Amino acid sequence: MPALKAILFDLDGTLLPLDNDAFAEVYLGELAKQGAAWGFEPRKLVKSIWKATGAMVKNDGSKLNVDAFWDAFKALTPEMDPAEIDRNIPRFDAFYSDPNGFHKAKITSGENPLAAEVVEAARRKAGRVILATNPIFPTTAIEARLSWIGLTPDLFDDVTTYSTCRYSKPNPNYFTEILEKHGLKPEECVMVGNNVSEDILPTAALGIRNILVTDCLINEQDLPLDGFDTCTFAELKDKIENL
């Protein structure tokens, strides 16, 4: 078996214990409140964000996700001048670092005192650690969520954001893009995630080994887990050390 050169980690539900539905409700609720002060109709803003996020998920690689998002958002918000939306983008970015904005969604997440220890173990084992979080958020939103478990982006060799990627999960091209960027072969990597459809099946299709963390398991297809390499987060460090 080829030497292990990189371990990829999902964020939400893997490193960060998270109730996705509760998170989205609080996050978008707070964004709607602030967006109203910027001239957006709150309910329309939330609907447009969901639909523009869908445009990122469907991105065919012809543009960066950030452009796919804002192009779709502008098309969904014809009542506002596109230049005015552009002027508001820094406000959206700042929202994610605001203690009275995005950070209020921390109440929907749990603590994970083992997170830093596991990331350190992955670096010792593979030499390279990549935060392969679904790239549908700006950097500020990812920095915020990492901070909820005491982590920072500089602990990783790469952090995927909507400004750096042209695909999103569950598109296998998202993972191929990471491999190509870092000069890695599939068999040299391991993906650690909690979502069967987004983290496990696409990487398995590419020949990337994977570990399914079951604490916040998402298995929308209700697939039997017999064939997967599974563990709890408490067991993850030992599993990584024994790869």
What descriptors fit this protein?
46% helix, alpha/beta, 243 residues, Rossmann fold
Describe the structure.
This protein has 243 residues and is an alpha/beta fold. The protein folds into two domains: 6-18 and 110-241, HAD superfamily/HAD-like (Rossmann fold), CATH 3.40.50.1000; 21-106. Helices cover 46% and strands 9% of the residues. It has nine helices and six strands; from the N terminus they run E-H-H-H-H-H-E-H-E-H-E-H-E-E-H. Strands 3-2-1-4-5-6 form a six-stranded parallel sheet. Strand 4, helix 8 (196-206) and strand 5 (209-213) form a beta-alpha-beta unit. The longest helix has 18 residues, at 20-37. The chain is globular, with a radius of gyration of 18 Å. It starts with 5 loop residues before the first strand and ends with a helix.
Strands of the widest sheet, in order across it, are 3-2-1-4-5-6
Protein structure class: alpha/beta
What number of domains?
A: 2
| Number of helical stretches of at least 4 residues | 9
List the helices and strands in order.
Answer: EHHHHHEHEHEHEEH
Strand proportion: 5-15%
Q: Taking all residues together, what is the mean pLDDT?
A: 97
- Main beta-sheet annotation: 6 strands, parallel
The CATH superfamily of the largest domain is identified as: HAD superfamily/HAD-like
Looking at the overall shape, the CATH architecture of the largest domain is: 3-Layer(aba) Sandwich
* CATH topology (fold) name of the largest domain: Rossmann fold
CATH class of the largest domain: Alpha Beta
Task: Identify the overall geometry.
Answer: globular
Number of DSSP strand runs: 6
- Portion in helices: 40-55%
N/C terminus separation: 11 Å
Query: Gyration radius, to the nearest Å?
Result: 18 Å
